[in-house]
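Posting for a labmate who doesn't have an account.
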Amino acid sequence: MKKIIILASGLLFSGLIYAHPGHGENFMGAFMHPILGWDHLLTMLVIGMMVSSYTLKKGILLPIVFVSGFTTAAVAGASLNFISDAATLINQATFMTLILLSAINIFNKTISFNFLLAILGGFGLIHGLAHGLELPSNQPTIISGLILSTVVIHSIGFLLCKFISKKFSQFIRYFTLASGFIGAIALIQTV
């Protein structure tokens, strides 16, 4: 727990708190953006880990719904990129999704699966809109890079959980709590 607090405190005073450093001008820049943007990386890993809480046939719907919402909002947001005033609010909403994912993971078994799907679809819309508003225009190659990277990170989260949670049963809980704490620090800094 001390390591989590030290890491979060370090983020509080670092430039890493700015989660969206840019998407690049091409597919590869867009692909790397979610990997280098810590808020996106943590959110995608947590969603990937949540898949392991269900049968694969059921759990795989979680990232599918997220990516569907993400794609829809990214395309729409790229068409609305003249609304720059909303960028700060949308960025704060992405931090909120990380905090809420932490709470959802704690109460995961008490939330209906369909409600969870709706929540993750909404989170996908928020993250997609955040990225879409930052794009210079509706560029399919950049959006494709973001989507592919998101799917890869979901898969890594799932695999991490599958292999690590056998030895460390509380891995998901600690990881999501730490992610939520980091998201809360980021949110506080933007207010």
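Reply:
Got it, the structure tokens are right above this. The chain has a mean pLDDT of 82.
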